[in-house]
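Support request, priority: normal
Reporter: lab tech (M.K.)
Component: structure prediction queue

Hi team, I submitted a job for CUB domain-containing protein from Mytilus galloprovincialis yesterday, and the status page still shows it as pending. I've pasted the exact input below so you can check whether something in the sequence is tripping the parser. The sequence length should be 389 residues. Please let me know if I need to resubmit or if it's stuck on your end.
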Amino acid sequence: MFLVEHNNTKMKFGFVFFIVCAGAVRIQQVENTLQCKAGDGICKQMCAVDEEDTGSCCNINRCCQPRTCNDTILYAQCKARNGENKPMCEVNEQDTGIGPFCNDNRCCEPTTCIDEIDCNCKVGCDSEKEREDQNGLCCKSMKCCKTCNDTRQCKAEGGICKQTCAVDEEDTGPCCRHSYRCCQTPTCNDSLQYAQCKAKHGESKPVCNVNEQDTGIGPFCNENRCCEPPTCIAKVDCNCKSPGFRCYKINEYLDIAGNCSGSNTCCKPCCLTCGGTFNGPEGSFTSPNYPSYYCNNHICRYTIKVEEGSKVMLNFTFFYLEPNMWGDFTDTVQVYDGEISTATLMATLDGGPFEGLEFNSTSNKMTLIFKSDYIGGYPGLSAIYKTLK
Ligand SMILES: [Ca+2]
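Reply from support: The job had stalled in the queue. We restarted it manually and it finished. Here are the results:
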């Protein structure tokens, strides 16, 4: 029932429209056409691309008018920002706000860099005051420049900013310009001392080993000392002798740590030289072969010289020589305050064993003379010395 009425209504409406249009078609067409023409429009079947469709002409024709919209300026503005004219900006783009364009398009430019707030975005950074942050994102191929003072600081300290410091220069840190380093002439130069040390077959090390001589060369930049090897190093292996046979008393000594099978004795050649000159602020030395037995017929001089104006403290950490049984001064150590003279002899020592005996000099020098006679080897002595201010 409802459908019938509804269809009837449509039929009635269509009928009335037909009557009006059919009855007044000429008048209406003229009116529309006049109205369209009054607006500089033309009634045609289809408007051209550069025309605007402003409505019907009461028939299948449309009223086409020249577009009133002109977006030439907007397009230039958009292009100046490397923007692009498109219906909708993409995810990584932002709407510049330029427009809208006649076709309702938007001007979309690449997303502004997230770091742009931090960066000073420029074509090139000022290498004196700025560092280029290569991770910084600036738009349009600009560089992300950040303030720094490394270059100025390097120059103020006498350095030069370069890509790589030379071998004899000290790398003291970065410069503002990316990947440049601040290179300075080292304040300390020990190449001469090193050459001198090497010429004496010495070695640069923090502390000289026992029986190594501190040559007094230096100090090195790293506070190391130049240590010379002992005057005599027994590099030979043992001359192993059967029990009951002793080391030849003139030119061999008994090495107590020697490696001979069973109870055989390890004999090694005697050093032809001994003693040494000790110029470091502190040091140590021993008698030849210590703690094995010293050789016979030796005279060794140990000369200690510390900084001018200071004094020497000497301590025998161990002492054991052949005792002077009959007043014949078999083996002895003489301690001199300064240079050797009868006036400066502080002590003549023999026997032992004892440890911790100490001597202080009145000047910056001290001299020791170790003597062994023709027979009877003992462990000898071990001593340390220090500088007293
Ligand atoms: Ca002796």
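Residues 1-23 have pLDDT under 50 and may be disordered. The chain is about 15% helix and 30% strand. Let us know if anything else looks off. Ticket resolved.
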